[in-house]
Amino acid sequence: MKLVVVTGMSGAGKTVALKMMEDMGYYCVDNLPIPLVEKFAQLILDSHGQHDHVALGIDIRSGEDLSLVGRIFDSWQQLSIAYEVLFLEASDQVLVKRYKETRRSHPLSGAGRVDQGIAKEREKLAFLKRKADFIIDTSKLLTKELRQELEKIFKEDGDFDNLFVTVLSFGFKYGIPSDADLVFDVRFLPNPYYVEELRAGTGEEREVQEYVMQGSTAEIFLKKLTDMLDFLIPNYVLEGKNQLVIGIGCTGGKHRSVTIAGALYEHLKDREGLGVKIEHRDIDNDNKRKK
């Protein structure tokens, strides 16, 4: 039997994750009273394979009984019941925004502010996060991207290193992305902006890419960049980092940064154990300014 405990911050996507796991063939139960959890697991074991894959949702709504979960985990270990813990995380800013959009109150906020409830919840769930086998930060994930990450862990049985990488191109004249962990300036590369027939194009087009990559400078830079990231990423995983935003910037975020970001994405996208996506923040900004 494969038993997965799905937990995490309220608003981080636990209910959505359980629905996705149900689509993957898991028998899912959400918000079961904690005193019944141990009995539930035993009943599943006694069903003799009727349910081979089970996902159990546990969250802050369990109240004071939540403190009993640690004892239950110890009991499962003693009984050799194999289980895994999935913890869904999101930044405070994103959680507050989600609560405002749904006009729901946080389970622990009462008559107070949502951010106060979130702070209390983080404190109460800290022990579960420490016990987690998998942590997914949903702050920047689309629904389809969350599904992909869950499938990597629970459907394909592949290795998962809890790291999601965003390769983000941007223009310095529009500001450095506030959430970037690493920022690389590629304004030293040939600029297609000064070639009339290329100016309206973007780094997603072959002619622009060839112009940016002319000579050996861009290739040397890419080699050094990928070598450094090949060293850094495994060490970030060991340190427990679960999200990495790599910013690639040029002047307007349309030609050079898009070209290099695309090449970097191609280098990383098939890496085992990583979730990788690419975003071009400012690729259409020039067109928006002309309107």
Strand content: 15-25%
Total beta strand runs = 9
SS summary, helix count:
11
CATH class of the largest domain: Alpha Beta
Round the mean pLDDT to the nearest integer and report it: 87
CATH topology of the largest domain: Rossmann fold
Low-confidence stretches: 156-160
What's the overall geometry?
elongated
Strand arrangement, largest sheet? Answer: 2-3-1-4-5
Q: In terms of structural class, how would the helical and strand content be classed?
A: alpha/beta
Q: Give me the Rg, rounded.
A: 23 Å
Can you put this structure into words, describing what you see?
- With 291 residues, the protein is α/β, with parallel strands linked by helices.
- It has two domains: 2-155, 3-Layer(aba) Sandwich (Rossmann fold); 163-290, no CATH class.
- The protein is 44% helix and 19% strand.
- The chain contains eleven helices and nine strands.
- The protein has helices spanning 14-23, 34-46, 69-78, 92-102, 114-131, 143-155, 196-199, 206-212, 217-239, 256-268, 285-290; strands at 2-8, 27-30, 53-57, 83-89, 134-137, 163-171, 182-185, 243-250, 274-280.
- The strands form two sheets. A five-stranded parallel sheet has the order 2-3-1-4-5, with helices on both faces. Strands 7-8-6-9 form a four-stranded parallel sheet.
- The longest helix has 23 residues, at 217-239.
- The chain is elongated, with a radius of gyration of 23 Å.
SSE layout:
Elements: E1 2-8, H1 14-23, E2 27-30, H2 34-46, E3 53-57, H3 69-78, E4 83-89, H4 92-102, H5 114-131, E5 134-137, H6 143-155, E6 163-171, E7 182-185, H7 196-199, H8 206-212, H9 217-239, E8 243-250, H10 256-268, E9 274-280, H11 285-290
Parallel strand pairs: 1-3, 1-4, 2-3, 4-5, 6-8, 6-9, 7-8
Helix pairs in contact: 1-6, 4-5, 9-10
